[in-house]
UniProtKB/TrEMBL annotation:
<dbReference type="InterPro" id="IPR013083">
    <property type="entry name" value="Znf_RING/FYVE/PHD"/>
</dbReference>
<feature type="repeat" description="ANK">
    <location>
        <begin position="156"/>
        <end position="188"/>
    </location>
</feature>
<keyword id="KW-0040">ANK repeat</keyword>
<dbReference type="InterPro" id="IPR036770">
    <property type="entry name" value="Ankyrin_rpt-contain_sf"/>
</dbReference>
<feature type="domain" description="RING-type">
    <location>
        <begin position="320"/>
        <end position="369"/>
    </location>
</feature>
<keyword id="KW-0677">Repeat</keyword>
<comment type="pathway">
    <text>Protein modification; protein ubiquitination.</text>
</comment>
<dbReference type="GO" id="GO:0005634">
    <property type="term" value="C:nucleus"/>
</dbReference>
<dbReference type="GO" id="GO:0008270">
    <property type="term" value="F:zinc ion binding"/>
</dbReference>
<keyword id="KW-0862">Zinc</keyword>
<keyword id="KW-0833">Ubl conjugation pathway</keyword>
<dbReference type="InterPro" id="IPR050663">
    <property type="entry name" value="Ankyrin-SOCS_Box"/>
</dbReference>
<dbReference type="InterPro" id="IPR056760">
    <property type="entry name" value="RING_XB3-like"/>
</dbReference>
<dbReference type="Pfam" id="PF24921">
    <property type="entry name" value="RING_XB3-XBAT31"/>
</dbReference>
<dbReference type="InterPro" id="IPR001841">
    <property type="entry name" value="Znf_RING"/>
</dbReference>
<dbReference type="GO" id="GO:0061630">
    <property type="term" value="F:ubiquitin protein ligase activity"/>
</dbReference>
<dbReference type="GO" id="GO:0000976">
    <property type="term" value="F:transcription cis-regulatory region binding"/>
</dbReference>
Length: 446
């Protein structure tokens, strides 16, 4: 590709170089001397705002915006500064551009993608969350609808969830699923036609992405346009561990229970505890599935060292009144009764949709039968009334192996488991690989 400045003046070249390196004083001096340079562009029509956004130069970007530069300037490929900031994970620039009114609904002409697609494709979950948060509050929620935006498709029919699953981005997969991304949506021309996010995660071989998708209800029996299920895709690409989990004959994973969606307010900390309990239960299931095979599953991130000694300090009154084994970490509101995260999940899993109305009953407290309005993190105290952090690794396992063989079937089930490559950076331009347009650098001689 050709390189070089569209205008060879020293001032213009010095301006773009100063923006790239974050030299605010020089940028201001050049623009004060020649204000028209703020509208000049370099190869492929990259403006100074594009360069500042791609390189995370927040002070220069803020100064340019204060001089009434259009936040939605487009380069030759219709890429905006917001897209480049999301592509490179420059979260401060993403936030500033959105505050300045940058349009999160604009599509580029390379792949027909928005800033949300770029954040998901490159795995910048923080930028993705900022964009999703903006979509909840600005005109997108009114004109498009938030759910429609989360599932927006690019030019090849891929949603951000498809891209995150294919590129092995579990944090982005989780954030999108938590925001309402459709777990079983099919692609158009992206990847293999008719692929679901689970097909693409199987192709990429990411166990973490497969786990997330299965925990959110992805169907292992969905078929792509050629009739393949995700299990077949994983085998074809030699991802044996993924194939073992996706095998339709293996035990089904636990799924995030739909009754939790009916609770009017699910405290974020409590949600983290419940999600952790769900994923750890599924990891136990994975160990059983992969036992005796050549595949291994990463052990939970916490250590069991010192667990028994610490839990022995917990008063018996703090143990869950349902399983009498785990420490109470979740408190039900408004009644105030407490139970462990695992039993809370089992309680919600036990509530099935009414076959007559197809609606899910609101979960009720197992102790007083009042409706659960809110779930919060319970305060755990030792016998000496010292509060403990329920997120502590030492409290994630009880002094006995968790065994719910006696009790309801739902509880049993839960317990059993110098150039533009320098100035703009990577990702401007395109090349075709495996039926997918991906970005490659373009250069600018200095």
């Amino acid at each position: 590709m050709g390189q070089g400045l569209s205008c060879g003046t020293n001032d213009e070249h010095g301006l773009f170089s100063a923006v790239q390196h974050g030299d605010l004083e020089t940028v201001e001096a050049v623009l004060d001397k020649n204000p028209s340079l703020i509208h000049h562009t370099v190869y492929d029509r990259y403006s100074v705002l594009h360069v500042a956004a791609a390189n995370g130069q927040i002070e220069i970007l803020s100064m340019l915006l204060s001089r009434s530069v259009n936040p939605d300037l487009s380069n030759r490929h219709k890429q905006t500064p917001l897209m480049l900031a999301a592509m490179h994970g420059k979260i401060n620039c993403v936030q500033k551009l959105i505050e300045a009114g940058a349009n999160i609904l604009k599509f580029d002409s390379v792949n027909g993608r928005t800033c949300l697609h770029y954040a998901a494709y490159y795995g910048h979950s923080d930028c993705l969350k900022v964009i999703l948060s903006a979509a909840r509050t600005n005109h997108v929620a009114v004109s498009w609808g938030y759910s429609r935006f989360v599932n927006i498709r690019d030019g090849k029919g891929a949603t951000p969830l498809h891209l995150a699953a294919r590129q092995r981005r579990p944090e982005c997969v989780h954030a999108l699923l938590d925001s309402g991304a459709l777990v079983c949506a099919s692609t158009g021309g992206y990847g293999f036609p008719g692929s679901t996010p689970l097909h693409l995660a199987a192709r990429g071989g990411s166990l973490d992405c497969v786990r997330e998708l299965l925990a959110w209800g992805a169907d292992r029996l969905n078929r792509d346009a050629s009739g393949r299920i995700p299990y077949t895709v994983a085998l074809r690409h030699n991802h044996g561990a993924c194939a073992a989990l996706l095998n339709p004959s293996s035990a089904e994973p636990l799924v995030w229970p739909s009754p939790l969606k009916l609770i009017s307010e699910l405290n974020q900390e409590a949600k983290v505890l419940l999600e952790r309990a769900l994923m750890e239960a599924n990891r136990e299931r994975e160990k059983s599935i992969l036992k005796g095979t050549s595949f291994s599953v990463a052990s939970p991130s916490h250590s069991d060292t010192g667990t028994d000694d610490n839990v022995s300090e917990i008063s018996d009154t703090e143990l869950c009144g349902i399983c009498f084994d785990q420490v109470c970490t979740i408190e039900v509101q408004p009644c105030g009764h407490q139970m462990c995260a695992q039993c809370t999940l089992a309680l919600c899993c036990h509530n099935k949709p009414n076959p007559m109305t197809a609606t899910v009953a609101i979960p009720a407290c197992p102790f007083c039968r009042s409706s659960i309005v809110q779930l919060i993190v319970a305060k755990v105290k030792t016998e000496n009334s010292i509060e403990l952090d329920v997120n502590s690794p030492k409290l994630r396992k009880s002094r006995r192996s968790w065994n719910l063989n006696e009790g309801s079937s739902s509880f049993k089930g839960l317990g059993a488991v110098g150039s533009i490559s320098k100035i703009v950076g990577r990702g401007s331009g395109r090349i075709a690989i495996e039926n997918e347009w991906i970005d490659k650098p373009v250069g600018l001689d200095t």
